[in-house]
Input
Amino acid sequence: MSPMQTNAIALRQVTLFAGLNDAALAALASRLRVRSFRRGEILFNKDDPGTSLFLVKAGRIKISVFSSEGKEAVFNVHGPGDVFGELALLDGAARSATATALEPSRLLTLDRAAFVTFLREQPDAALALLSDLAARVRRLSSQVEDLMFLDIPGRLARTLLRLGDEYGRKSTRGVEIDLQITQAELGGMVGATRVSVNRLLHWFAERGFIAIDDRRIVLLRPEALQARIIG
Output
């Protein structure tokens, strides 16, 4: 199978591109480039020019921003099949966040000119993109609501459940979150320090809510975490 055919298959699995006919899919696949990143490598920084859209083939990418004091807020983690970076392509503005590889990753990139042409020629894809962006706005709104109304244990419990939904893999013990993430990065997701997250993870583990195996978290009792969110 040629690289272009492989890229076309990858595109077909993404909601944004799933409705394309074979000819349009092949034309778009021919414009993709493959890039590889090491763990910890930055794809782009906040305020960099937005010149490419990214599709994750393998690995995990963290989207975050940093305060002037160096504190990190993590907005999202993208895995295989996810698309990101399209917002800057739509308005031509600078990147709104920093993207960092959480693990060795391979991505497909599409430049702005090709992407804009694609949207003009495929109105159904434009609608799919709007739906995807709306979902992200709702997710950010939910994160803001959590920060305002939940305490830190509640926010951590909700984040662990969300990661279990998105990256969970069922095992005999429970739901293993198939994502290597540091406690500092987890703290960035819930608006807490690494020390607070470390203490709470051990508190959850002592009560049998979770287990921690080699930097991976296993959800043993999701219902107990859900109850902790409520109070």
Q: What stands out?
A: The chain has a mean pLDDT of 86.
